[in-house]
Specification:
The chain has one domain: 3-Layer(aba) Sandwich (Rossmann fold), CATH 3.40.50. It has 238 residues and is an alpha/beta fold. Helix 3 packs across helix 6. 34% of the residues are buried. It starts with a strand and ends with a helix. Helix 8 links the parallel strand 7 and strand 8. It comes from Pseudoalteromonas neustonica. This is protein acetyllysine N-acetyltransferase. It holds the Pfam family SIR2.
Length: 238
Amino acid sequence: MNTLYITGAGVSAASGIPTFRGEDGFWTIGSKNYTPMEMATRAMYVNNPREFLAWYYHRFATYRNHGPNEVHQWLSDKNLITQNIDGLDGKAGNKNYIAIHGRLDQMTLFHEQGDDVKAHATPWNNVDESRLHESLLELFNIENQQPVLDQSLKPFVLLFDEYYTELYRISEAQQRMLDADKIVFIGTSFSVNITQMALEVARSYDIPIEIVDPEPAHVMHRNVNYHKMTALDYIQRN
């Protein structure tokens, strides 16, 4: 059977990475002046890269050295699309997973969406925390507080006011959904576009789905099996 796994933040919780909407989540804790929904935007990167990069560094990059957990290991040979940007599935050895929202351990040229660019490693370890803002601006090649297209760099992360492009392998992700005999959603709240896209494919082609979450979102689909448990409990039963 060709099972497609689609994972969210719940999978990385056991690695010590906060889920997005929990008490200490990335979308709960903003900066001094901005909410997370305002921070994680292309507009903020363009207009206030100093604040944008510092927020990403504190909220995401500080977890860059965390390792994969048992769930990532179990998924390492699976057909996988993850919403997570932590790169832990790659660390666990999955060679062909799709990081549909990007990876924080990588960066790209700041480009017009849809342009053909490559992602490469972000040298986060070069950041000098004693002069954090200036160091981050230097790392991402931003001068005069203003990123420049095709010159500055940007975290390889899909932001709220951006859309899926081939940089994020969206066509391949859609094809994997269409080819699946079953889709298993693990640790996701169904609050982002990719899960809604997969759910619509499952409905249209009558593909059975499973939802694994301690508090699973209930969805409209005639062939759904709910597993009210953590990702770790699920893999231990499978």
